[in-house]
Amino acid sequence: MATLKQVAAHAEVSVQTVSNALNAPHRLRPDTLQRVTKSIELLNYRPNRNARSLRTSAVELIGYCVPSWPDGQAHLVMDQFLHALCTAAETSGRHILLFTAPVGVEGMPVYEDLHARRLVDGFVLSQTETHDPRHGWLKEQQIPFVSFGRVWKETTQPGPYVDVDGAGGCAAAVRHLHETGRRRIAFLSWPKTSGLAEDRLSGWRAACRELGLPTDASLAVRCLEDTIDQGARATAELLDADPGVDAIVAISDILALGALRELTRRGLTAGVDVAVTGFDDSPLASVVSPALTSIRQPMDQIATELIDILTTPATPGVSTERLLQPELVIRGSSAPG
Amino acid sequence: MATLKQVAAHAEVSVQTVSNALNAPHRLRPDTLQRVTKSIELLNYRPNRNARSLRTSAVELIGYCVPSWPDGQAHLVMDQFLHALCTAAETSGRHILLFTAPVGVEGMPVYEDLHARRLVDGFVLSQTETHDPRHGWLKEQQIPFVSFGRVWKETTQPGPYVDVDGAGGCAAAVRHLHETGRRRIAFLSWPKTSGLAEDRLSGWRAACRELGLPTDASLAVRCLEDTIDQGARATAELLDADPGVDAIVAISDILALGALRELTRRGLTAGVDVAVTGFDDSPLASVVSPALTSIRQPMDQIATELIDILTTPATPGVSTERLLQPELVIRGSSAPG
DNA sequence: CGGGGGCGTTTTAACGTTCAAACGGTCTTC
DNA sequence: GAAGACCGTTTGAACGTTAAAACGCCCCCG
């Protein structure tokens, strides 16, 4: 465990010079730099992050509250997201610190504490809710943050965010289905209380109208829970009420799996008789058969933008609200063969 | 952002006394303690972790390498594990720091670097492999670690670990199936190269023998990948070759889902005609129908033991190898109604 | 030849905390 | 009544780093 002092002694320079060699190499004369660099390598020196942070009061750590989920609700792309976030943080020399906190505003003292004790520089929020109180609170406390997901509705100054254009994604799915000959496209959704759901639904509706396809109220079905069973049940209702449906855009992969199951149960072939698309391109999408066409969120890009916004000092010209386009991954459930 | 100095001035004591009030309150006279405590509250003081860590050279941070998975292989219980790990760390005043690293021994420089720069005190490893080189390497470097999962086979001094008795879990599943009248129980497995697979398989074999049930080689089928398709295909082969099979113990929930699908395809009812069990009790197990009987790993306990081993200084009497019992969660796929 | 300006390096001080030793007071003990 | 032990508190130093200022040197210019 070599220290700056030991390196300095070895290279026969002052401590500060070694520090400069690392943080501002242009200040050193080339030969000095080389001598110092050699000593650093020789002694296998690594800067002590704690000492550095104490001096600079920046810890290069970003807090992320690991979501807890109601039973039976999986976050199937969470590991993708975490991996992307981690990678993005690392390319900027930072790391992710995990913690737990109560949901909503009750969790705020935890955020404040972590920041006050200087365990983190700022936070990445996810699971943003319709009237998420966390944004306003953090802004008030002047704690840096960025949110994955817009704050939906009625909140003044929502703060910096990165989000995916769910409406655009669903519209793309509808257009793809239209191109492959589908003409009566249903939408499997969640309850109205979710901003996410309304956004995606609006994309389906807009694209259908644009293409002259029906958007009857009966074509948009809501499931109370994000489970396979609910997806299957809703699909059954849909097909019973309207046998002409030839495609289903589901708001999640899980609901889409439910749709697939119900189709199989009825002796229908997904992708042939009725096309199905999901959302998130979770790992399950590619392991079922027929494999599920799904709308993939660009996790790497999301993570990069999140870290970028969080670590770049606010600049007048640069927006801190970024909407990214998802990608439609086409598989057998909508285009067999 | 109050500091110790400011609190000291406010309480009219020395800095060290305030420090003692927090770290060794028994040393203070009750009235002094109260006065100091009051000042701390009044100024909303929070100790600066960096300064503390610099002095004590302990950062109270535990590194965990976020696993990256081959496409189409989901780690469905990773968020459960992370949540449990986080919670366990927090109850001991620590936190989890995420990072990425190449798999195997190539990732070791990353571990060393994080430790040398004093970003973490130690590591929790997971995804332990048969000849995992990380354990030996870390031990050699004297970097504290604990592994979730045994090092299988031939490694001397495997190092501290917490693991789940997969054999015991599978044996419990077999006994449960036997109790409910099943007499020809098959096992859906992975390739032989996995220590995990061999462990679980051995539990099935042992329990069957104990109960006088057949363990023909044809009853133990191997799937090359952990996908629903592979599980379905293997189940099809199994039933074609041996129509007498009345129960299937699958080594993973994913394979079990494949089995369920194949049964449905054949017009058989899971839980009635053929019983099926999975492993991990992933979120999917409870959202399919019939819901899947599955072997649940005690995540909270696992996490607690991991943190305990990692943070407790080695004591001669106390073992650092702990094997925990999983819990069989019985649902409709093995016991309808 | 004296003053100003770069340049590369060193010096000084500070970040906020804890450890170890020192201190002064009171209470025992012989 | 002096010596020792104990208790609660303070003092001094250190952890390893970086920011800012100071320094000495050389070069240029008037």
From TrEMBL, chains A, B:
Protein's UniProt keywords contain Transcription: yes
Residue ranges of domain HTH lacI-type in the record: 2-56
Endpoints of the signal sequence: none
Keyword field: DNA-binding, Transcription, Transcription regulation
Domain of life, per lineage: Bacteria
DNA-binding listed as a keyword: yes
CDD domains: HTH_LacI, PBP1_AglR_RafR-like
TM segment ranges: none
GO molecular function: DNA binding
Stated name of the protein: LacI family DNA-binding transcriptional regulator
Organism: Kribbella sancticallisti
